[in-house]
Amino acid sequence: MSDKETGQYVITQITSDKRFTADDYAKLPYRAPYQLIEGELVFMASPYFNHQEISFNLVLKIGNYVQQNNLGKVAYSPMDVHLDEKNIYQPDILFVSIKRSSIIKKFIFGAPDFVLEIISKSTESKDRNEKMRNYGKFGVDEYWIVNLKKENIEVYHNQAGIMIHQKTAEKGDSITSKAIEGFTLNVGDVFS
């Protein structure tokens, strides 16, 4: 399901009294577009072109910088991030530093250093609530929320297990990452 006008993700929660676990999740068909959020199985429809174009721009910028500076690994959706038995997410982009590379197996088992989510009308509530709360709780250092409609990026840093808003960067602004050492992004380059 998708919003044809905005080209954004549409999420559908699978209605069930059952709470799903990582074992249940592992039994789903390979590459099934689901996330496990607080034990609820959530279907993620395929994103539209504008989402993928922005995601690709960001993966290139972040990935090239990380690779050139030998800082760690960058991955993009779909890549399962196993936070615990009830929470398995597929963030749009993630970074794991060299010092934390032991969490990289077939999938990611633990909190990445950096997570980026590109929000849409249908994903915004989960990205700003349950997922943000759990990214903080499980130890993600930095969380960026990219808003395609407003053409801005919100930056959050983890402080004692809670994601705290640092800034909202617009076109013309730049962001220097806390988690990706030395990486600075010109926000206008993302949306051009």
Can you give the helix content as a percent range?
A: 10-25%
Tally the helices: what do you get? 5
Q: Measure the end-to-end span.
A: 27 Å
For this structure, the CATH topology is tt1808, chain A
Overall 3D form = globular
Strand order of the largest sheet: 6-9-11-12-13-14
Q: Report strand %.
A: 35-45%
Estimated structural class: alpha+beta
Q: By CATH's scheme, which homologous superfamily applies?
A: tt1808, chain A
Characterize the quaternary organization of these chains.
single chain
CA radius of gyration is 16 Å
Main beta sheet, described? 6 strands, mixed
- Give me the strand/helix succession: EEEHEEHEEEEEEHHEEEEEH
- Number-wise, the strands total 16
Main features:
disordered N terminus, 192 residues, alpha+beta, tt1808, chain A, 5 helices, 16 strands
Describe the structure.
With 192 residues, the protein is of the alpha+beta class. The protein has one domain (48-191): tt1808, chain A. The protein is built from five helices and 16 strands. It has helices at 22-26, 49-68, 124-128, 130-138, 187-191; strands spanning 2-3, 8-9, 11-13, 34-37, 40-44, 72-76, 81-84, 87-89, 93-97, 108-109, 114-119, 142-147, 152-159, 162-169, 174-176, 184-186.
